[in-house]
Amino acid sequence: MRAIVSILVALTARGAAAQQALERLFYYVDTENSYTSLVKHIDQITVLGPQVYTVDSLGIVWGSLDRRVLDLAKRRGVKVMPLVVNEGFNQPALRRLLADTAARGRAVRALAGLCRDHGFWGIQFDIENVNLEDRDRLTAWYADAGAALHAAGCAISIAVVHRPEDFAGPLGYHRFLYESWRAGYDLAALAKAGDFVSLMSYAQHTRRTPPGPEAGLPWMRDVVEYFLKFMPPDKLSLGIPLWGEHWFTRYDNTIAERARSWSETVSWAWGSGLAERNGARLQWDSTQAVNWASYENGGTFEWLFLEDARSFRAKLALAKAGDFVSLMSYAQHTRRTPPGPEAGLPWMRDVVEYFLKFMPPEKLSLGIPLWGEHWFTRYDATIPERARSWSETVSWAWGSGLADRNGARLMWDSTQAVNWASYDNGGTFEWLFLEDARSFRAKLALAREKKLRGFSAWVLGPEDERIWEALPAGSVR
Fold first, then answer.
1. Quick check: is 396 in a domain?
2. Closest CA to 274 of 239, 248, 312
3. Which of 82-86, 340-344, 369-373, 469-473 has the lowest mean pLDDT?
4. Predicted model pTM
5. What is the pLDDT of residues 408-417, one digit of tens each?
6. 294 beta partners
7. Burial of 71 (0-12, 13-18, 19+ CB in 10 A)
8. What confidence tens digit (pLDDT) does each residue in 295-325 have?
9. Cβ partners under 8 Å of residue 188, min gap 6
10. CATH number of the domain to which 76 belongs
11. Is the residue at 76 inside a domain?
12. What angle do the packed helices 217-227 and 309-319 form, to 10 degrees?
């Protein structure tokens, strides 16, 4: 991440419910405009990521967070997740750190202590310029840090450089990115070891490349789809740039040509001002979701690619994941809980009403379970108690057959819209909660009452055949 950037934003989907209610992680640096923006918008932020700590090749961590920032965040209920950055993104120094287990351990202890002592929500690793040969060492260090931070009651995440595919790419430049910036991250292992991954989808074009968007929409989509091969959506946080880029000709007496194409980051205000003072009209590229302009300066062209509110909305829509949200309202009770309905009607109503605070009904599809659950006592040699309450999913036919063979009568709970039964097996009770056609009709009625987009049913096979009577061919409206 670039230290000169005043603020970045990453949006993290947290489970099914978060497809619209996205967690908002904003990055912070120790500058006046970053602090001013924080004070103004603190109530629109859910997680704050101050870029304040550095780690060197010996594993020494140093830095500090402005006490005013931490106090403000705590007063407003904003979670704080400071970043730890490898010094200067210097690859030789990073390679020494990753090869030294004592240095890695020193850094882990320091980070866990900082998080615990200051009451941070967690720590984010911003470790960049990772050589592909250090991939396993980085993973091991991050996993050790994850274990220590989790033991301290803290979360951990990692910022990862963009990558759109397995292949390095068509140019020598892409080989360079692959070797030193992309292939050093084991995406699946990092996602498993930590709480989430922040995808740095920006820097599609930089001072090293011809002019182009900081993060064009098609590019972002490709990168997100690649990352989702290695982790579930609730582990992925999408980085959205808030700055623009200005390309120009830079004098450089260190090279034979004495000049090169170069770029600098610019704010929206400064970049749009550059366009205006040079008589250039900003144009909107709806495919890339970016503003751009070019103008002549002394006979050579300069270029601007600028992010504005339209750019942000387009990329936020990508994080919100498509045309509609499918609400998986089931799993109210599972093997981890005491027996109860898979999705009781009052529970479903509460969940739907909560979701409708964040989206119109035509954007919401209601997930309706077609299976039941059977709770029983399971022997387990891996725990001291040697047994635990457990459950398994069952079809309507199998579940009602279990009740019948054990002499139990299925009872209808009209409040929960579910069938249930219990029976004795060797002196301990077993429980059944089963969905049938009446359950289905009651939950379908909820979708109609709330004028939802429709419903989704998991999964074909275990259903009570009579549900199909409620579904004439075509629309179910």
1. yes
2. 248
3. 469-473
4. 0.62
5. 999 999 998 9
6. 303
7. exposed
8. 999 888 899 999 988 888 888 777 665 444 4
9. 230, 231
10. 3.20.20.80
11. yes
12. 20
